[in-house]
Write a structure and sequence with these properties.
Layout lengths: L2 H5 L1 E6 L11 H20 L4 E7 L3 E7 L3 E7 L9 E6 L1 H4 L2 E8 L2 E7 L4 E8 L8 H16 L6 E7 L13
Parallel strand pairs: 1-2, 8-9
Antiparallel strand pairs: 2-5, 3-4, 4-5, 6-7, 7-8
Length: 177
């Protein structure tokens, strides 16, 4: 395991900082700049850090340099409307330089391959469908794509899966409980 690379990953956080309006607005740009400044300060305190996000609300897929050479990579649907279930990575400049490949699998799954000091690492960011609000077909499609994505990683490479899997613990409550 490449611990220096893994040390840079701080996991997933649920971000709803962008507006719901279409198209993207100056307010979106201002929020992105504010987020970049905040993350810059946070990352300085935590050394070299990267982040994966579930519930990103951008359009389409893309790669964009943001404040201080951090790189935003997002997968948020087909680009015609703002995503409701998008995912993204915000990469430290040192990590961004070592990205070998980006796969935009769906609005719920994105994967990047990163060259580390000792091996290649595959980071998959996912946002699973909720049990209550999604059909069985949507859930099966998501988990099939996750299995296919994970199956492409060779034994010589590292696999790191992170995201929001909408897990529930405990007994399901009904209106009578």
């Amino acid at each position: 395991m490449d611990y220096l690379l893994l040390k840079k990953i701080i996991g997933e956080r649920n971000r709803r900082t962008q507006t719901e309006n279409d198209p993207e607005t100056e307010e979106d740009d201002e929020k992105e700049r504010a987020l970049g400044k905040f993350l810059g300060r946070l990352y300085e305190e935590m050394e070299n850090t990267d982040d994966g996000n579930s519930d990103s609300r951008r359009k389409g897929t893309g790669i964009k340099q943001i404040l201080e050479d951090y790189v935003l990579i997002w997968s948020c649907g087909d680009g015609t409307t703002r995503a409701t279930h998008g995912v993204d990575f915000i990469l430290h400049p040192d990590t961004a330089k070592n990205v070998l490949e980006t796969e935009f699998i769906s609005e719920r799954i994105i994967k990047i391959r990163v060259r580390g000091e000792q091996k290649i690492s595959n980071f998959t960011q996912a946002y699973a469908p909720c049990n209550d609000s999604c059909s069985e077909e949507q859930k099966e499609d998501f988990f099939e794509k996750m299995a296919d994505t994970m199956g492409t990683v060779t034994d010589r490479e590292e696999l790191i899966v992170m995201g929001n899997f909408n897990g529930r613990v405990g007994k399901r409550r009904t209106h009578r409980d």
